[in-house]
Amino acid sequence: MSLLISVIIPSYNQGQFISQTIESILSQSYKNIEILVIDGGSSDNTVDILKGYENRIYWLSEKDNGQTDAINKGMAMAKGDILTYLNSDDFYLDGALEKVAEVFNSIKNTFWITGDYLLVDKQGNRINSPIVGYKKLFRKILSFKLLTVLNPIIQPSTFLSRSIVEQVGTFNEKLIYTMDYEYWLRAIKIHNPVVLDAKLSAFRVHKNSKGGSQFKLQFEEELRVARKYQSNSLQLFLHYLHNKLIGIVYSIIK
Fold it and tell me: Which residue among 77, 131, 155, 184 is the one 20 to 30 A from 173 at the CA level?
């Protein structure tokens, strides 16, 4: 029996992108999936778009307490053996879910996996950036200690078993930008992820995305999270320095 993959899509006023996000899941060769769109009460055309998928996805649209609240709502509703969330401006690459299911089926004691990605602009065109290569390099030596210095884990290319979710718990709703990073820190303390070389998703950078317009606030929050889990002053300084360097790159490509 094939594993059920649940994909939660937290959404708010991303009507220009959400069709591509949903279609990238529905068009996967792997078909044992459920899609849960948790919308925060969008005022654009999002709800009209979701109505067009009425029989193929589950969706709700209501005022919530932000992205992390939406993710937790979806995770609580999801029935899958494998759980993940995909932001409503990102999308999966062809064959991604087939690769994910194959790993969970073939590698014993796989609790979570993380893979590679493409960086794309507002129109979905690939951005050639050294960030992609350097993150791939550091994922090869991923550890808890490394993760307190920098985060090479790509959120839309990361998939969690129900077992690890039950052990780690919910995402921290006090965090606005780095709820995923804080979750990885808790998860890696329990089990190391299986790291794949395969590109599974496209991460979109644009002026209205958190990664595109609010990366400075994101890095500040990330450093606060790192301080919660790491007391070594050298590693925390390296984290600060790393964020400064990456911020320069984001300023160029956003």
Answer: 131
What Å distances lie between residue 151 and 4, 138, 207, CA to CA? 28, 9, 22
Q: pTM (2 decimals)?
A: 0.93
CATH fold of 5-253, please? Spore Coat Polysaccharide Biosynthesis Protein SpsA; Chain A (3.90.550)
Please give the helix or strand (H or E) that residue 60 lies within, else none.
strand 58-61
Give pLDDT tens digits for 87-134. 999 999 999 999 999 999 999 899 999 999 999 999 989 998 888 999
Which residues, listed in sequence order, are joined to residue 11 by a DSSP beta bridge?
39
- DSSP-assigned beta bridge partners for residue 116: 199
The domain spans of the chain are 5-253
Distance, in Å, from the CA atom of 119 to the CA atom of 203, rounded to the nearest integer, reads: 5
Burial 69-81 (b: 16+ CB within 10 A, else e): bbbbbbbeebebb
Give the distance, in angstroms, between the CA of residue 135 and the centroid of all CA atoms in the same chain: 15
Structure tokens at 219: 């890095």
